[in-house]
Amino acid sequence: MSLQMVDLKTQYQRIQSDIQREMQEVLETSMFIGGPKVNAFRENLEAYLGVRHVIPCANGTDALQIAMMALGLQPGDEVIVPAFTYVATAEVIGLLGLKPVMTDVDPETFNITAAHIEAAITPRTKAIVPVHLFGQSADMEAIMQVAERHNLYVIEDNAQAIGADYTFADGAVRKTGAIGHFGCTSFFPSKNLGCYGDGGALMTNDDDLAAKARMIANHGQSRQYYHDKIGVNSRLDALQAVVLNVKLPHLDTYNNSRRGAALYYDSVFSNIADLKIPGRQHNSTHVFHQYTLRLEGGPARRDALKAFLQEQGIPAMIYYPVPLYKQLAFEHWWPGGTLPVTEQLCDSVFSLPMHSELNEAVLERITKAVKAFFEK
Prior knowledge:
By secondary structure, the protein is α/β, with parallel strands linked by helices. The protein contains 12 helices and 14 strands. It folds into 2 domains: 8-249, 3-Layer(aba) Sandwich (Aspartate Aminotransferase, domain 2), CATH 3.40.640.10; 250-375, Aspartate Aminotransferase, domain 1, CATH 3.90.1150.10.
């Protein structure tokens, strides 16, 4: 039987009655946009993250765009992003007429670093978008210090790390997404906290920025039919909000299950010479949105492993096979050259099934198949 990269069906079955009850309430009240269900989720997520303001919106890409609009970034402004990430991080930069400046990443954590950022700053730099890739935080204390020195905004792309904790040098602990000027997240179904469609949110501790983001997300309205800014139409609907509100109390349990699965994988794969298990940021927990290994031998060998696993009914994915600067959509922004770590990662990474419903029998099946590839 074929496995899934993410088993949403089993997860749903465990909370089915709660989901159905809450959805039925929405259907009966017919309050599909806004209303008490969306407000309840917003308040609960604010409490969970320890942040003053959550602004729900339609998806994670919109969240990034709204954040940049609320910060008043103007065409030609430069925004620093990692070159090893999903396209949405840089896509909105180009969409707004800004310039994405792509940097290399740390080979162990796959995240952008303060040193990479500082080397990329120019007089036109206005913002940084650190991506908490695959489930762990970038080194936010160091990044915030760089931002403060150069008077830059920080927009955390937290789509893959919701629930992760970052520990500062003084022992203070903050949730990812609640550290920068804005945090942005996606509630795409496969995320650690996912809805049953599209959804997203912005997070901020700044009252003024929160007011601007709320206005921009709702057609730039300060009140109905009075439009103070050019905005967008980006809302989280009530049906998605109730799904998220049911799941939110389970998020830490879901993330702990993912950590347990990752430790099982680690125990097996750390003994295979040509595999490198995921590195950990020393001052961040990891919520393992993905479990991403590196395979020695180049992309041809990785493709052979992927095909071998597919024959055994085990999926594997490559996140991400192409650096952002080699995507046709971004080539006119790239000054030339290569980023060696990003290139190496794109040629060597692959991800195995990772979700909250993995059990020992499934993990054993996956790891045995991977070991068999190296033994044949």
